[in-house]
């Protein structure tokens, strides 16, 4: 199965993606990670991507779509993908439908994590990413401990784009470009809305229950 996680930036898509990828043996496709990998290449394209991200703007669809197609065309990930941060526009959603059909796959579930802006702002400013293993934590809601994180705390870093101006730009961008995707998947009877304000374990439990109930 292929899963899509939707929600405001910082709503917990990355955390839930990590959990679900382990539970269902899926490969997590984070366009944010893909773009940051491109930035590290220090090319003309990487400079363009970095400028857009730092301003809280969306990267052009053609760049994102090409990166995603590289993943979908890999037979090792056939029908076992979980998308975090893609699609972000209605055009991307429609193009994803074209891609999954091209590679004889399908989107099985779409989950939208519902949160509010005040909660998101606090979550953003507390977010920490481990530069060694890639796990995501939060100083306020999900701190790194010896039980859930094996790497040295020195690897925990704040992302450069986690600042108030960028956060507010992301809210505006999300409302304008991403919200129509909800109706698109709702019309396909694929959309499931989940409360993103409850405990992380309860969110993943609800998602797992929905998947199990519809798979049987």
In short:
The chain has 216 residues and is an alpha/beta fold. It has eight helices and eight strands, in the order βαβαααβαβαβββαβα.
Layout of helices and strands:
Elements: E1 3-7, H1 13-23, E2 27-30, H2 31-39, H3 44-54, H4 61-72, E3 81-84, H5 90-102, E4 109-114, H6 117-126, E5 127-130, E6 136-138, E7 156-157, H7 164-186, E8 191-195, H8 200-215
Parallel strand pairs: 1-3, 1-4, 2-3, 4-8
Antiparallel strand pairs: 5-6, 5-7
Helix pairs in contact: 1-8, 2-3, 4-5
Written account of the structure:
Strands 2-3-1-4-8 form a 5-stranded parallel beta sheet, sandwiched between helices. It has a 3-stranded antiparallel beta sheet with strand order 6-5-7. The protein has helices spanning 13-23, 31-39, 44-54, 61-72, 90-102, 117-126, 164-186, 200-215; strands at 3-7, 27-30, 81-84, 109-114, 127-130, 136-138, 156-157, 191-195. With 216 residues, it is an alpha/beta fold. The mean pLDDT is 87. It contains 8 helices and 8 strands; from the N terminus they run E-H-E-H-H-H-E-H-E-H-E-E-E-H-E-H. It has a single domain (3-115, 164-215), classed as Rossmann fold (3-Layer(aba) Sandwich), CATH 3.40.50. The protein starts with a strand and ends with a helix. Helices cover 49% and strands 15% of the residues. The protein is globular.
């Amino acid at each position: 199965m292929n899963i899509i996680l939707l929600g405001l930036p910082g709503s917990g898509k990355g955390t839930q993606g990590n959990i679900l990828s382990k539970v269902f043996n899926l490969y997590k496709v984070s366009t944010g990670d893909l773009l940051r990998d491109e930035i590290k290449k220090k090319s003309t394209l990487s400079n363009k991507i970095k400028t857009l991200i730092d301003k809280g703007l969306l990267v052009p669809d053609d760049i994102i779509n090409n990166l995603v197609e590289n993943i979908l065309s890999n037979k090792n990930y056939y029908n076992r993908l979980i998308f975090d941060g893609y699609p972000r526009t209605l055009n991307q959603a429609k193009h994803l439908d074209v891609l999954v059909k091209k590679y004889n796959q399908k989107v099985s579930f779409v989950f939208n994590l519902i949160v509010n802006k005040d909660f998101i702002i606090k979550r953003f400013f507390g977010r920490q990413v481990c530069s060694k293993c890639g796990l995501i934590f939060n100083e306020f809601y999900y701190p790194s401990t010896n039980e859930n994180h094996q790497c040295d705390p020195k690897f925990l870093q704040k992302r450069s784009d986690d600042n108030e101006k960028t956060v507010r730009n992301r809210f505006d961008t999300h409302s304008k470009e991403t919200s129509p995707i909800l109706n698109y998947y709702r019309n396909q009877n694929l959309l499931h809305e989940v409360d993103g304000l409850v405990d992380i374990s309860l969110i993943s439990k609800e998602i797992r229950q929905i998947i199990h109930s519809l798979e049987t």
